[in-house]
């Protein structure tokens, strides 16, 4: 009996595995030419200064609209791009497109004069030998001031290779580029990273913000991240601000910047321009 169950269990597992692998391979295949076919687009989510509610920047977020599959979630296709190495070609395209868009807005719209753009960079992209050059090339090609480019890294991107990553980030910061740690607080060793890796800011993970008003521990942790950030002189950003109540308490605790559905959804360039006008 046990043996039969085992065999059955194994079969089931193997079938599910096959399907998952097949789906990934299919996505990888489809993703390969997606940029060239115009299926990949950037949307931009506004980032506000909490003190006076002023728009200060945007985060560029990638979208994939597949003709048959529809919208594929970034959490899915970014992972496929990262695992398959496709990020090596998509990453630099995203970087340059985001810089170009920010520069165009700065020049065309008075409300966007000092606007920064924040670009997500995956672990593999950060580690590729040419990353610093990619950044320099994107800035040179678009004319964006380095100080208005922010790079968002997750804690997993800086784990391990701290010495080399620290050096790389130091070089980018010397240009004026700002480095932010994304989804901050979800990794266990957030504080120790801040000692070894030079960053200009942290983005408090939205899971803390989501439960802040219900869970005293999350509120305490959020407050602690804000004071810790300020005591070491870095910018603190809250992501996933969905309600006015969350916004008010973050402002009261001195959080510098905020981003989230209550403040503004990610928007296609056209819609963003309407907002700016
Ligand atoms: P992230 O960098 O932490 O981006 C924030 C995510 O939260 C975005 O999801 C955004 O749409 C969503 N969000 C913003 N405000 C709210 C809110 O108030 N409530 C909730 N529930 N969500 C909110 P998205 O666009 O699905 O992106 C997911 C992740 O995919 C990003 O997380 C980032 O890690 C990655 N990603 C997106 N675009 C790129 C890219 O161009 N390159 C790389 N390497 N990764 C990217
Ligand atoms: Mg981000
Ligand atoms: Mg985040
Ligand atoms: Mg995230």
TrEMBL record:
Q: Which residues form the EAL domain?
A: 24-277
Localization per record? Cell membrane
Q: Which domain of life does the protein's organism represent?
A: Bacteria
Q: What is this protein called?
A: EAL domain-containing protein
Q: Which organism is it from?
A: Luteimonas deserti
Where is the organism placed in the taxonomic lineage, from the top? Bacteria, Pseudomonadati, Pseudomonadota, Gammaproteobacteria, Lysobacterales
